[in-house]
Amino acid sequence: MSSEDKNKPNKSSEMSRRKFFNLIGWGGLLASVGGSAVGTYKFMFPTVLYEPPTVFKIGKAADFGMGVDERLKKERQIWVVKNDRGLYVLIAICRHLGCTPNWFPDQQRFRCPCHGSIYDIYGNVRGGPAPRTLWRAAVSIDAADNQISVNFLNRQDPDPESTAEGLTVEEPPRETAPYFVKSA
Amino acid sequence: MADWMENLKNKIVETQVWKSIFRHGYPDTDTNRALVMFSNVLLHLHPVKVRKSALRIRYTWCLGGLTFFMFILLTITGVFLMFYYVPDTRSAYQNIKDLQYAIYFGNLMRDLHRWGAHAMVFLVWLHMTRVFLTSSYKPPREFNWVVGVLLLVLTLLLSWTGYLLPWDQLALWAVTVGSKMAEASPLIGYSGPFGREMGMRVDNDIRFMLLGGTVVGQSTLLRFYVLHCVGLPLLATVFLAVHFWRIRKDGFSGPL
Ligand code: FES
């Protein structure tokens, strides 16, 4: 301990000031770099989407004939299926990798052109690589105009158990509300 | 007469403009010869000395060089295509048709771009096979092998992002399938392993970012266009520079 040290009583506070500015400098730099990184990341995710409506009306139940109706496939990506008890809506997106399957009335099967998935009229997997059954969109009847309203995003997604045959699934037809409406 | 030319030449090479571009004199001394090498971007990418055996075409087949040639060719023809192609879902297909059938040299440009892309993928593959078979990935070149693998991935991504642009059935479904695969990637995809545990939803995962939405549409086309024409080529250029720089540092491989 020399007398010089005693002549500098502020030394410790002097150092803390240096540390303080160091902290402010680097902290500010890091904060601005980090902030702009977060901002750039968020920039890549649009907050407004200009996409087809996800809830839409498709007309009255009486407008559809028996069996699979393909009229709305292109515009709405759905099939409307009607049997003698009522009506349900299948989403025309293959559960394998998202292609649009085709309906073959003679075989009573949906077949996907991409990798050969096969579904029956209820959407059950009958063959091919598809791991799950076709989605069903939620449907309801609007009391005001008796039209059927489809919710494209509200989907039934049953997880069929795998069977000895692999991905082929035997499943009772799923006709539960709100994925099924009684015929008018 | 000769005097007059000599004077003019001296006048030119002594101007500020000339000196700011060429920072060395005529390469007649050792210093200037070295400066010619070190101050020239293209020459500097070459090693100071090259083994005679490494220059034998039957050793490397110049496959890396041919790959780079394809990259240059694709850049140039790609710029030409940009004059007529608009990344708009309503006009993209028609623009490609115009390029093929109406625009003078359009079909040539498109085919050069298309076949060049196929050739580049093929050449990268052959190049890597050659590097593997001649053990040229071994130390001290193992880092450059890693950079090369990144360049392979970039080549494939460039091919894939170009695929969507014609906006035909093939392109549309290829990207539908491809982005579904992205959705199944671990951690960052909605339906991939641990995706949901990481808080991924259909509107915040990697597929959403790639497509710019939840369905393949206008924003998808635009995003793939920007990726294809700006993002990935820039990235590839950076890695190419590192790749060549590393080759210079390590020297060409040669038969042992
Ligand atoms: S997308 Fe349907 S079988 Fe692959």
How are the secondary structure elements laid out?
The complex is a heterodimer of chains A (184) and B (256).
Chain A: H1 3-7, H2 11-43, E1 55-57, E2 67-69, H3 73-76, E3 78-82, E4 86-91, E5 102-104, E6 109-111, E7 118-120, E8 125-127, E9 136-141, E10 148-156, E11 181-182
Antiparallel strand pairs in A: 1-10, 2-3, 3-4, 4-9, 4-11, 5-6, 6-7, 7-8, 9-10
Chain B: H1 2-13, H2 16-21, H3 30-38, H4 41-44, H5 57-60, H6 63-82, H7 92-101, H8 106-133, H9 142-164, H10 169-183, H11 206-211, H12 218-250
The structure holds FE2/S2 (inorganic) cluster.
Residues 94, 96-99, 112, 114-117, 128-130 of chain A line the site of FE2/S2 (inorganic) cluster.
Description:
With 184 residues, chain A is an alpha+beta fold. Chain A has three helices and eleven strands; from the N terminus they run H-H-E-E-H-E-E-E-E-E-E-E-E-E. Chain A has helices at residues 3-7, 11-43, 73-76, and strands at 55-57, 67-69, 78-82, 86-91, 102-104, 109-111, 118-120, 125-127, 136-141, 148-156, 181-182. In chain A, strands 1, 2, 3, 4, 9, 10 and 11 form a seven-stranded antiparallel beta sheet that branches. In chain A, strands 5-6-7-8 form a four-stranded antiparallel beta sheet, with no helix packed on it. The longest helix of chain A is centred in the N-terminal third of the chain and has 33 residues, at 11-43. The relative contact order of chain A is 0.14. With 256 residues, chain B is an all-alpha fold. In chain B, helix 6 (63-82) packs antiparallel against helix 8 and helix 8 packs antiparallel against helix 9. Chain B is globular, with a radius of gyration of 24 Å. FE2/S2 (inorganic) cluster is lined by residues 94, 96-99, 112, 114-117, 128-130 of chain A.
Overall structural class of chain B, as computed from helix and strand content, comes to mainly alpha
**Residue share in helix of chain B:** 55-70%
Radius of gyration of chain A, in Å, reads 31 Å
**Largest interface between protein chains, with number of residues from each side:** A-B, 11 and 16 residues
For the termini of chain A, the CA-CA separation is: 101 Å
Count, helices of chain A = 3
What's the helical proportion of residues of chain A? Answer: 10-25%
Average pLDDT taken over every residue of chain B: 90
Oligomer: heterodimer
Look at the helices and sheets of chain A and give the structural class: alpha+beta
Q: Based on DSSP secondary structure assignment, what is the total number of beta strands of chain B?
A: 0
**H/E series of chain A, N to C?**
HHEEHEEEEEEEEE
Strand content of chain B: under 5%
Global outline of chain A: elongated
Question: In total, how many beta strands of chain A?
Answer: 11
Count of helix runs of chain B? 12
